[in-house]
Amino acid sequence: MNQKNTQIVATFYKFVSLPDFAEKQDPLLAYCLDQGIKGTILLAQEGINGTIAGSRPAIDAVLSYLRSDPRLQDLEHKESTADNPPFERMKVRLKKEIVTLGLPEVDPNEQVGTYVTPQEWNELISDPEVTVIDTRNDYEVHIGTFKGAQNPQTNSFRDFPEYVRQNLDPSKQKKVAMFCTGGIRCEKASSFMLSQGFAEVYHLKGGILKYLEEVPPEDSLWEGECFVFDERIAVGHGLEPGSHDLCFCCGHPLSEEDKASAKYEEGISCPWCFDGLTEEKRVRQQEKWRQLQLKMLRVDTAS
Questions:
Q1: Which of 94, 170, 262, 288 is the residue whose CA sits 20 to 30 A from 190?
Q2: Helix, strand, coil % (nearest 5) of the chain?
Q3: pLDDT tens digits, one per residue of 195-214
């Protein structure tokens, strides 16, 4: 890893009442820009959610700045590293929700499910009376999930409430355990399910990433890899980089098997988008891929 260009990537979220969230936008943006930070921070009445990248001193400074607000003094964050800056600019956006369920009335600040640590998770999901649900989207579940977990087959987190209404019943599913990548979606999903009358709702504290970080492979009930929203694409146990790439055309994670398919053409198509690719779109995609290769060649030549 090139130490000179190494970036610290920090992700964080907190559900907390921020009635003055709009007033925080400009000062926060200005402070991040002063520190040379890039990434995105979302602010809403219900809290804060962000992923930012920069030097070690800059990340520490921004996190300290955020925690100087008494309401955010216990803000937790996770870190990874990137060889090069993973973001092109800094954005601080105002939103109705920091993770979009489409039901602003569902508020984790009012009620949330029971947190379960990675060390307690195996025992919980091994209980036959517990319904285990993966709250992530279908393309994420496709490359890895917990053994025996239900896949709601959603395209967006907004689809989750309808999945619950159509497939689950509080009188039948007495105990429900949910998980997601880092924990934020389960905060809102568990709050929603409690509002629908489900009595015992549990969720994995710190999400899949914390589980993979803390639970050794020999004790793990995780199968496959975990999709992540950064340059690593997917990770395995110990948060080691996985084997997946992304389709340049549709953004779907690709396994080695996918890349061996006759429908895969680097930069142009993959098994997940090939059938929907018109000739016109194929030509456009070929040109986009050609332009990217030229840009990368110019960068390599300049360095």
A1: 94
A2: 35, 25, 40
A3: 999 999 999 999 999 999 99
Distance CA 86, CA 32 (A): 16
Dist CA 248 CA 270 (whole Å): 9
DSSP bridge partners of 114: 202
Confidence of residue 246 (pLDDT cuts 50, 70, 90): confident
- The per-residue pLDDT for 82 is 79
pLDDT greater than 90 at residue 229? no
3-state secondary structure of 124: helix
**Largest interatomic CA distance in the chain:** 65
Tokens of 107: 């508020």
Which residue numbers are catalytic? 180
Q: Which DSSP string do the residues of 241-302 spell out, in sequence order?
A: B-S-EE-TTT--EE-HHHHTSTT-BTTTB-TTTGGG--HHHHHHHHHHHHHHHHHHHHHHHH
As a whole number of angstroms, the distance between CA 19 and CA 16 comes to 9
| pTM (2 d.p.) | 0.83
Confidence check: pLDDT of 1 > 50: no
Phi/psi at 221 (nearest 5 deg)?
-105, 10
